[in-house]
Inverse folding.
């Protein structure tokens, strides 16, 4: 081994969380052991194989949970085990065989640079048996990562990743199952850790032969809840604790009008990003906040890393009088069971203090509907423009 490889071998462990993958786990572990000396298996309550017995006379370490606690709990058990062992990184790899242990050396050059990066092995989906749901789920996860952190990660759902152990040991997590991997990326970014991506191979067997413990409804619901929680935290005007001092962008460059305008034009201009910006701007514009709409829109767009030009300008489509009148009418109907048939200066302006409750109630109905419609329209238009003109600014 070279000097760097020797250092990597001493300071990096492979961690294999496993639950009932008895047909693949031994092969995965043996192939990992051919690359690195230190392999730790976290048996998350498997009942199809006794891994403690399999590796009883081996240098492969096994930690067993008495019952299934979830993939996140398994990863946290590994961090707790390694944090006192002078380990810089642990590389997690799934026990079902979808990742290639032979790709572990792809992580090494980045691991040698520092001890505070999180490296994500982004799966190459140009292979057989990749289901449409997997592609869509990956795109959605990547979108929310962009919203919550402002960073672009190509594969937020990959379980093949390197964790900086001593930094993750200082972070607090609420998730213990598949949603942990989502929370881990966001909290790592908030803590100032560097997120880096590499491309790794992936193997998917035919659908009827694949063993997966990911429950589409239950686990996607958990992931949706943690995204909601993290987005809510992001909106709070409270700074996150930094474990690593980040390099500050050159703010003076953005003071140049042309550079600042170009920055705004290129900010999160994917179809999903622009659609989200339009939807959020619409929702806020419909809610009754006289005199505060612009301030709130810019604040939310900044916190959620949305395109500020889209978020700010979309509000002009919902200026008085049409949208407030519609909200008052719907609110009046919900409160009184009949329509406010007279919508004139007296009822909508002179009696405005009496209409605020009706306006608010009506806006709760109108805002999400208009937000969905506006976001959908913007998404369709931007998708169309991308296909018609690949060189368009939306793709740059």
């Amino acid at each position: 081994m070279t000097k760097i490889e020797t250092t990597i071998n001493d300071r990096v462990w492979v961690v294999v969380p496993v639950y009932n993958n008895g047909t693949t786990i031994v092969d995965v572990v043996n192939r990992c052991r051919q690359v690195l000396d230190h392999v730790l298996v976290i048996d998350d309550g498997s009942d199809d194989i006794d891994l403690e017995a399999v590796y009883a006379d081996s240098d492969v370490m096994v930690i067993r949970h008495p019952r299934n606690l979830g993939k996140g709990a398994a990863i946290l058990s590994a961090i707790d085990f390694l944090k006192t062992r002078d380990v810089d990184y642990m590389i997690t790899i799934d026990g079902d065989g979808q990742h290639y242990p032979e790709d572990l050396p792809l992580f090494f050059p980045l691991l040698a640079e520092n001890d505070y990066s999180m490296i994500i092995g982004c799966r190459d989906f140009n292979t057989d048996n990749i289901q449409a749901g997997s592609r869509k789920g990956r795109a959605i996860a990547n979108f929310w990562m962009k919203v919550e952190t402002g960073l672009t990660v190509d594969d937020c759902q990959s379980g093949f990743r390197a964790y900086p152990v001593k930094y993750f040991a200082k972070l607090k997590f609420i998730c213990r199952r598949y949603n942990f991997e989502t929370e881990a990326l966001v909290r790592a970014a908030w803590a100032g850790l560097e997120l880096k991506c590499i491309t790794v191979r992936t193997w998917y067997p035919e659908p009827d032969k694949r063993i997966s413990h990911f429950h589409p409804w239950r686990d996607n619901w958990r992931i949706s809840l943690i995204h909601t929680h993290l987005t809510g935290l992001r909106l709070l005007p409270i700074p996150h604790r930094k474990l690593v001092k980040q390099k500050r962008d050159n703010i003076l460059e953005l003071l140049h009008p042309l550079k600042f305008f170009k920055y705004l034009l290129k900010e999160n201009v994917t179809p999903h990003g622009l659609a989200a910006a339009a939807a959020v701007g619409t929702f806020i514009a419909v809610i009754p906040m006289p005199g505060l709409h612009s301030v709130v829109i810019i604040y939310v767009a900044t916190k959620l890393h949305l395109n500020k030009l889209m978020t700010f300008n979309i509000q002009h489509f919902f200026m008085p009088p049409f949208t407030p009148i519609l909200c008052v009418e719907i609110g009046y109907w919900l409160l009184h069971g009949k329509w406010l048939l007279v919508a004139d200066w007296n009822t909508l302006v002179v009696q405005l203090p009496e209409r605020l409750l009706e306006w608010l109630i009506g806006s709760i109905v109108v805002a999400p509907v208009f937000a969905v419609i506006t976001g959908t329209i913007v998404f369709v238009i931007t998708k169309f423009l991308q296909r018609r003109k690949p060189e368009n600014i939306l793709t740059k």
Remarks:
- The beta strands are 12-18, 39-43, 61-64, 89-92, 117-123, 161-164, 194-200.
